[in-house]
Input
Amino acid sequence: MSDASKFLEQVDQAAATVVAQHADEVDRQARFPEASLAALKAIGALGLISPAELGGLGHGHREAALAVC
Output
């Protein structure tokens, strides 16, 4: 399994266990999705296309597109 595939599995898991769990409440209360952002940060999603030498994951735009679809 490639690094990109592993990462996409992590995104799917975070979306299913954290983002989806809090989405209705966040929308109803019109508040910032702190728990969702923390989960995405924990798996490195905030640095998805940033170069690895700068602390990112170094993935490309293809992986970014797959992560948000």
Summary: The helical segments are 3-29, 34-42, 61-68. Residues 3-68 form one domain.
